[in-house]
Protein: SDR family oxidoreductase
Amino acid sequence: MDGGRAVVVTGASSGIGRATAEVLAGRGVLVFAGVRRQEDARSLSEALGERVVPVMLDVTDPGSIAGAAEEVDRRLGGRTLFGLVNNAGVAIPGPLSYQPMEEIRLQFEVNLFGALAVSRAFLPLLGADRSRIGAPGRIVNVSSVGGKIAAPFVGAYAAAKHALEGMGESLRRELMAFGIDVIVVAPGAVVTPIWEKADRADLSRYDRTPLAGPLRAFREFALWESRRGYPPERIGEAILSALTARRPRARYAVVPGRPWNWTLPMLLPTRLVDRIIAAQLGLSPRTSGAPGR
Structure:
């Protein structure tokens, strides 16, 4: 791959972001790896070498975003940015009926508004500024199976990912004016810290709600799934394909080959999927403790 190509990856301190930085750097790409802490910057530099340049970037902080864009602009020297990978994300499980609104808003701030704010800041570097040298770049939004299928107890995360995909579709059509493409990479289960962090959420605060039992069942299922997911490098390879394919797809679903992850929910009637989930998690009125009708 041409060593002159440069890509920005947000949320690069761990998981999919770090693996993507490693995959891209291994193919000769100069990676600007967005991190929020200096210790993560040092870790990336020591582990991945000179082709990975850590950049302080908090996707919820307008000043941090502007500073990162300015730093990347200086380093590019008038060249076009080859790609932007909006990977930074957060998942906080909880029932929508009871979850604090600040936790719901945070998931939208990071997973949706952060991706849009970063995209807007880097659009001139990607080719919206026609004075730059080189072909227009691409934006890759890292979504999720949850961007199409909403599981219970991760409603805010799924809603933000649904919105991310809708935003990206609209943005892709707007940016055709500049030749900038917008592509979705949607992983299924992945062995990454995002779900370890989610597991550390204090779910005991919901113990006195009628949904405590189903929530515990969902937590166990989600952890079981995440331990059997793809390694994050597999998602990094899909992101590489989205950035470099001659005719990229608009959406790449990267899902382990278990039919209940993707195939069956997409094919079966919605109400049947509802009943299957209710049976698995104990969500029927008789088993959940919720009042019946």
Notes: The CA atoms of residues 116 and 167 lie 8 Å apart. The mean pLDDT is 92. The chain has eleven helices and seven strands.
